[in-house]
Amino acid sequence: MNPYFVLGLLCIILLSLGAWQQKKKAALYEISWGAQIIKTITGRSFCLQLAGFAAFVGLWHVTVVTFSLPWFNRLPGPWECLLEWLSPDPDYGVSIYTKDYYTHILYSTYRATLAFALATVLGVAFGLMMGWSKKFYDYSFPLVELIRPIPPLAWVPLAILVLPGIEPAVIFVTFMVAFFVTALNTLLGVQSIDENYFRAAKCLGAGKKRLLMDVVLPGSMPFIFTGLQISMGAAWFSLVAGEMIAAQYGLGFLIWDSYSLIQYPVIVIGMVTLGLVGWASSAIVRSIGRKLMTWRERELSESGMGG
Amino acid sequence: MQTIEESIKTKKIPNHGNDSFDTKVKQGALSIKNVGKIYDPEGVHVEALANCSMEIGAGEFVAIVGPSGCGKSTLLNIMAGFDNLTQGEILLDKEPLATIDQPPSPGPDRVVVFQSGALFPWKTVLENVIYGPVTQGGMSIAKASLRAKEMLSRVGLKGIEDSYPGQLSSGMQRRVEITRALINNPKILLLDEPYRAMDTVTKGASHQYLLELYDLTQKTIFFITHDLDEALYLSDKVHIMTSRPGYIKKSLAVELPRPRNLSMLTSKEFMEMKAELVEAVHEEAIKAFKAGEREMA
Predict the structure, then answer these.
(1) Which of A23, A102, B102, B210 is most buried, taking the most CB atoms under 10 A from its CB?
(2) Residue A81's pLDDT band (boundaries 50, 70, 90)?
(3) pLDDT average, residue stretch A62-90
(4) Dihedral of CA A3/A7/A12/A13: which sign?
């Protein structure tokens, strides 16, 4: 039996289940874990998400395998890629059972994490300084605006020339992009703080240092975390670009290498893995943000419930 | 634990040993002398205040009314230390607070409660209230917390210490903000239209709360509003400010006994005072309106 037919049928069943669930609209506030999982699976939005995936994979299958359209006929089909990915004995040497696969993931994750961490520490500090001191802003902002539009790949030659070895160069390129995103969002965050919070803190006896710690930093936190999520994404895309040009390991390298070696399913495996790792890293940043901004979470969750 | 009413009767509130609610030594007398404020003296010449004078006795509750944009907030900002003046001087308890040579700076002796509220949304109610004493270095966190909890429970806010301001109603937020101001034992409380955006019911309750606190603490209160009922109901004296440049055109002593109660809002005296006030304010409002028309043309 065609697996796509089964998948499609499943989607339709779940969708109608979801619509039915929507009608019931049971007001459940405290439900068990199991019930929550069932509710999510049968929920309307989950079904729609699934349908979105199915449509994408279906389109892929139809264009590449079923009709083998002129431009698409050299691409691997979804089923082929999935089998390769899950195969204990992969044709091209990369699957979830091989050590190489995890080495690539580890290298990329290490580079992205290091660059992201550096960019976060320096970017937040830089952004706070720009928002905090008019003088520093005047010094640095035009320069930042001039350097920021330079695409990450344009930095690669200079980075290789200046830095010792290829590894730091790739990390530097990744860092640059994440840094500017973080710095600018932090600056926006500082500028968004209501003047009255500064005034209130001054009334209550806060000096410059306390203002920075008690008003500027927490006040710009929502913007900082929005920036961090964007910078996480930016870090991944410039990292992969960097790895394609200059690296021995990493998912970017894997994708480019597979292209040269005509191992097309591996390209897809690399891309899907990038998607998953990128999504996971964003989720981590989001959850840290939630932890740090309990006040915002509670405010949002209770708005609309009156007070 | 005493309730507010009991505290009012005995005019005393137990505290941690200093004179935080001491009403024996009256502080916070203000003399505002010929204060003028010109914005941007080099470019566009905007005269916000000119020859603005008034005397505020220690422990007096004064309300300032006037058309929008007349300079009420400018005066408050100068007193709070957010802005400087360009003419005249302000004395606080006979000491110069703001002169042309000595620009004022904000401090815990003059705490502002803002129109839109300025509780730090990222701090809990308790952290907000203890912010002043802890930041000024006068109190340990533990000691300040103890005192803050005591004050909060005294003003009917027990049990919300760990909530964030965003979880509270606007009425409760203002109460917390006033408590955050009072814990510093300020000489004067500056209120910049704190009840402006409130619905009538919440506003009424907030008025009652403020009156109770005033009776309890006897602090000087400088209250900006353009709600005439509110001004009369709360204050000892209503000052009417002219449209720009602002100065005090007329002052009206409010001879209603304290503690105030709602029946006074419909009393004959109240109505007479209100009529007088409406006339004076209306004149200024028309002037401001016409001036606005000129600026637009």
Answers:
(1) B210
(2) very high
(3) 89
(4) positive
Tell me whether A1 touches chain B (CB under 8 Å).
no
Q: Where are chain A's structural domains?
A: 3-75, 99-302
| Dist. CA B110–CA B126, nearest whole Å | 21
Within 8 A by CB and 6+ apart from B235, the residues are: B61, B62, B63, B221, B223, B254
Q: Which of B59, B24, B29, B12 has the alpha carbon at shortest distance from B219?
A: B59
Question: CB neighbours (10 Å) of residue A27?
Answer: 4
**Interchain contact, B81 vs A215, CB within 8 Å:** no
- pLDDT of the residue at A171: 92
Contacts of A201 in chain B (CB under 8 A): 120, 131, 135
Q: What is the spatial distance between Cα A86 and Cα B11, in angstroms, rounded to a whole number?
A: 79
* Chain A residues touching B112 at Cβ < 8 A: 199-200, 203
Whole-number Å distance between alpha carbons of A233 and A156: 19
Kindly report the pTM of this predicted structure.
0.80
**Closest chain B residue to A194 measured between Cα atoms?**
B118
Cβ within 8 Å, pair A202-B106: yes
In the CATH scheme, what architecture does the domain A99-302 have?
Orthogonal Bundle (1.10)
Q: What residue of A is the nearest CA neighbor of B189? A: A203
**pLDDT score, position A28:** 46
Helical H segments across chain B, by residue range: 4-10, 72-80, 125-135, 141-154, 170-182, 200-217, 228-234, 268-296
Please report how the helices A251-260 and A264-292 are oriented relative to each other, as an axis angle in degrees rounded to 10. 170
At B148, the amino acid letter reads: A
Residue A10 pLDDT class (50, 70, 90 cuts): low
Cβ–Cβ of B118/A194 closer than 8 Å? yes
Residues of B in CB contact (< 8 Å) with A are 80-82, 105-108, 110-112, 114, 116, 118-124, 131-132, 135-136, 163-164, 166-169, 172, 180-181, 184
Tell me how far apart the alpha carbons of residues A154 and B8 are, in angstroms, rounded to a whole number.
Answer: 73
Q: Are strands B237-241 and B248-253 parallel, antiparallel or unpaired?
A: antiparallel
Per-residue pLDDT tens digits for B14-23? 444 344 455 5
Tokens of B181: 């101001």
| Alpha carbon of B67: minimum distance to chain A alpha carbons (Å) | 22
Chain B closest-CA separation from residue A188 CA (Å): 18
Contacts of B64 (CB under 8 A, 6+ apart): B72, B75, B222, B223, B224, B225, B238, B239, B241
CA end-to-end span of chain B: 62
Average pLDDT over residues A49-61: 91
User: Could B114 and A199 be called an inter-chain contact, meaning their C-beta atoms sit closer than 8 Å?
Assistant: yes
> In angstroms, what CA-CA distances link B124 with A18, A107, A210?
40, 42, 17
Which of the listed ranges A253-262, B21-30, B194-203 does the model predict with the highest average pLDDT? A253-262
- Separation CA A280–CA A229 (nearest Å): 11
Asked if B117 and B202 count as a contact pair (C-beta separation under 8 A), the reply is no
Q: Is B252 helix (H, G, I), strand (E, B) or coil?
A: strand
Better-scored residue on pLDDT, A175 or B71: A175
The answer, for A212 touching chain B at a CB cutoff of 8 Å, is no
B211-257 pLDDT, tens digit per residue, is 888 888 888 999 999 888 899 999 999 999 888 788 888 888 888 88
